[in-house]
Amino acid sequence: MKAKFPATVWLPQVRIDFSAKELPDHAVKLLSMACADLVENILQQPGGRELLDAETARRKAREEAGGERKRTTPA
């Protein structure tokens, strides 16, 4: 999957727009490692694969429909 920039991060009542080009290399490396660790931890949980597959399907459907990102919360 090709990353789209600038990225948008949604926090409660806050929107932060940024581009990975604005981040120093060490920060990008740390974020990448944290992301890989998160995915690994999710996959180790019961139902983790299904959770990630469902989120991927939801994201792809939204992108195909041209919709905007909506924050989801784990069940």
State the main characteristics.
about 80 residues; alpha+beta
Structure overview:
With 75 residues, the protein is α+β, with helices and mostly antiparallel strands. It has a domain at 23-68. It contains two helices and two strands, in the order ββαα. It has a two-stranded antiparallel ribbon with strand order 1-2. It is flat and about 35 Å long.
Spatial order of strands in the largest sheet: 1-2
Order of helices and strands: EEHH
Main sheet properties: 2 strands, antiparallel
Overall strand count: 2
Number of helices: 2
User: Which spans of ≥5 residues are poorly predicted at pLDDT below 50?
Assistant: none
For the residues shown, what is the average pLDDT?
79
Structural class by secondary-structure content: alpha+beta
* Radius of gyration from the alpha-carbon trace, in angstroms: 14 Å
Shape: flat
Helix content: 40-55%
Binned strand content: 5-15%
Strand-helix topology:
Layout: E1 7-11, E2 14-18, H1 25-44, H2 48-65
Antiparallel strand pairs: 1-2
Give the structure's gist in a few sentences:
The chain has 75 residues and is of the alpha+beta class.
